[in-house]
Amino acid sequence: MEAIVLQVLNGLDKGSAYALIALGLTLIFGTLGVVNFAHGALFMIGAFCAVTLSRLLTLSHIVIDETQKDFLGNARKVEVPYIYDIFGEAAGNVIIDWAVPISIIVAIPVMMAIGVAIERGLIKHFYKRPHADQILVTFGLAIVLQEIIKYFYGANPIPTPAPDAFRGSFDFGAALGFDPNVIIYPYWRLVYFGFAAIIISAVFAFLQFTTFGMVVRAGMADRETVGLLGINIDRRFTIMFGLAAAVAGLAGVMYTPINSPNYHMGMDFLVLSFVVVVVGGMGSLVGAVLAGFLLGILESIASMGAVLAVLPGINQIILYLVAIIILLTRPRGLMGRAGVMED
Amino acid sequence: MSERNDITRRRVMKSGAAAAAAAASTPYFFTRAFADGHGYLNAPKGDTVTLGFNVPQSGPYADEGADELRAYELAVEHLNGGGDGGMMSTFSSKALKGNGILGKKVAYVTGDTQTKSDAARASARSMIEKDGAVMITGGSSSGVAVAVQALCQEAGIIFMAGLTHSNDTTGKDKKANGFRHFFNSYMSGAALAPVLAKAYGKERKAYHLTADYNWGYTTEQAVKESTEAMGWETVAAVKTPLTQTDFSSYIAPVLQSGADTLVLNHYGGNMVNSLTNAVQFGLRDKQVNGKDFQIIVPLYSRLMAKGAGANVKGIFGSTNWHWSLQDEGSKAFVKSFGTKYGFPPSQAAHTCYVQTMLYADAAERAGTFNPCGIVEALEGFEFDGMGNGKTLYRAEDHQCFKDVLVVKGKENPTSEFDLLEVVEVTPVDQVTYAPDHPQMAGGNLGTCNSGA
Question: What residues 262-281 of chain A have any CB closer than 8 A to a CB of chain B?
Answer without folding.
Answer: 262, 264-265, 268, 274, 278
